[in-house]
Design a protein that fits this description.
With 410 residues, this protein is an alpha/beta fold. Helices cover 36% and strands 23% of the residues. The protein has helices spanning 12-18, 23-29, 44-58, 83-90, 108-121, 196-217, 239-254, 263-276, 282-287, 294-304, 341-344, 347-351, 358-370, 384-387; strands spanning 2-4, 8-11, 34-37, 66-72, 98-102, 129-138, 151-159, 166-177, 183-184, 193-194, 231-234, 314-321, 325-333, 354-355, 393-399, 402-407. Strand 15 (393-399) and strand 16 form a beta hairpin. The chain is globular, with a radius of gyration of 20 Å. The chain starts with a strand and ends with a strand. The relative contact order is 0.18. The protein binds 3-hydroxy-3-methylglutaryl-coenzyme A. 3-hydroxy-3-methylglutaryl-coenzyme A (HMG) is lined by residues 22, 24-25, 28-30, 74, 105-106, 145-146, 148-149, 182-183, 194, 196-197, 199-200, 203, 235, 237-238, 240-241, 289, 291, 320-322. 3-hydroxy-3-methylglutaryl-coenzyme A is lined by residues 22, 24-25, 28-30, 74, 105-106, 145-146, 148-149, 182-183, 194, 196-197, 199-200, 203, 235, 237-238, 240-241, 289, 291, 320-322.
């Protein structure tokens, strides 16, 4: 696995001051400290390709070994052409490769991961590996309630029959789908529309639904019980959401509501949150919502802190995509996984990012609105030099309606 995100970020205290809001609402109320901000030269393709390149290099995987490439994204770059095919070229993957894009809001990458594990289990991989990349730019727009829950980034995962980090339980899996209008982005809009509080309720209902399906799939009920898990990882649109999710997980397990009438339940679920969820949310708190990749960013946080004693332990993963679709599954940490702690840790990259002033951030969002429409020479701030970026792969705007990418590594 590898994470890659934009080199610029917005500080939540600065944003709160600029919007005349108490900073405690963003930092404590939502649990967010910073949010990554993609410049006009970074898009779903550049972040996915960079994360993919890092995952292959860090785990010494030859691109020739990849027989399947899936990009899970809800911020694709074309209504027809998949982002995956640009990434396929940038990573120099073999032509004999099944390549496509999956979309179902934040659930898209989990759908891709399941397709990859099924491909391997069905015997179609013929010894090859799959590369699944979650890549997104979360944008709600200036002065909207969703503004403090933006972010951008990509998580790449190599899937094989002999995983070095985590192995998924093939049988224990719960699905959930229901048509709801909690969050959507019409074809004509660069910004998402959201019914924020309703979306939280939909997320929690989907968690109960996916847990119920997983419980029915389990051979014995204790297979999914919290006491047999080392960590519970959730989709993290903002850090506080993971706390709400864990409370719901406890309610499901105890079969009773956890509220002021149930102080013991409140205490137990909070203690369990501090032990099984909170330690793996520090990357999410400084990157923000990265939609498809948010759950897997929390998994990277878990794996980068791994000690040998944790090898073999079980953890749960819950993916939620608005609209809505969700899945709950269980995996266990592979023997020897703690050896890859440093290879997987993106802290160096996070530390190298530069903070944007709120004025720069607002100009950046305006520049991004037009970068796809015009010829590159006409677009202000569309060149990597305007942002002093150090990465390798950049989006250079369009020429005659064709997206242009540059790769400094060539
Ligand atoms: P809001 O109305 O601005 O905020 O919307 P609020 O009034 O609900 O306050 C937020 C929290 O801060 C509350 O905590 C307040 O009490 C607290 P809670 O009661 O929930 O525990 N608070 C404070 N705390 C300390 N000091 C203070 C203070 N003031 C308030 N002074 C909302 C918040 C998240 C709804 C909004 O930002 C939004 O619409 N975000 C986008 C939607 C979203 O993230 N939904 C999450 C579930 S849906 C999902 O995860 C899917 C998604 O990722 C998309 C996809 O699938 O593709 C979004």
């Amino acid at each position: 696995m590898a994470f890659y995100g934009p080199e610029r970020y917005v500080d939540m205290v600065d944003l709160a001051h600029a919007r005349s809001i108490d900073p405690a609402k963003f930092v404590k109320g939502l649990g967010q400290e910073q949010m990554a901000m993609a410049t006009p030269c970074e898009d779903t393709v550049t972040m996915a390709a960079t994360a993919g390149r890092r995952a292959l290099a860090a785990f010494d995987v030859d691109p020739a070994e990849i027989g399947m490439l899936i990009i899970g994204t809800e911020t694709g770059v074309d209504h027809s052409k998949p982002a995956a095919v640009y990434v396929h070229e940038l990573l120099r993957l073999p032509e004999r490769c099944r390549t496509f894009e999956t979309k179902h809001a934040c659930y898209g990458a989990m759908a891709g991961l399941t397709a990859a594990t099924d491909w391997i289990a069905a015997g179609r991989a013929r010894g090859r590996k799959a590369l699944i990349i979650a890549s997104d730019i979360a944008r709600y727009g200036i002065q909207t309630p969703g503004e403090p829950t933006q972010g951008a980034g990509a998580v790449a995962m190599v899937v094989s029959a002999s995983p070095r980090l985590i192995a998924f339980d093939e049988e224990l899996y719960g699905d959930y789908t229901r048509q709801v209008m909690d969050f959507w982005r019409p074809l004509y809009s660069k910004y998402a529309y959201v019914d924020g509080h309703y979306s939280i309720a939909c997320y929690l209902d989907a968690l109960s639904g996916a847990l119920a399906d997983a419980r029915d799939a389990a051979s014995v009920e204790t297979d999914i019980s919290l006491e047999h898990l080392d960590a519970c990882l959730y989709h993290v649109p903002f850090v506080k959401m993971a706390r709400k999710a864990h409370t719901r997980h406890w309610e499901f397990e105890l079969r009773q509501p956890i509220d002021e009438q149930n102080p013991t339940g409140q205490e137990r679920s909070m203690a369990s949150y501090q032990q099984m969820v909170a330690p793996w949310l520090s990357l999410n708190s400084v990157v923000g919502n990265i939609y498809t990749g948010s759950l897997f960013l929390s998994l990277i946080d878990y794996l980068r802190g791994l000690t040998p004693e944790r090898e073999g332990r079980r953890l749960s993963l819950f993916s939620y995509g608005s609209g809505c679709g969700a899945a709950f599954c269980v995996g266990h940490v592979s023997d020897g996984a703690s050896r890859y702690r440093q290879a997987i840790d993106p802290q160096h990259h996070i530390d190298g990012r530069r903070k944007l002033s709120i004025d720069e951030y607002e100009r950046l969002l305006h520049a991004c609105e037009h970068v796809d429409e015009s010829d590159i020479d006409d677009v202000e701030l569309s060149q990597p030099s305007a942002w002093d970026l150090r990465g390798e792969i950049f989006y250079m705007g369009t020429r005659q309606h064709i997206r242009q990418y540059s790769d400094r590594s060539l």
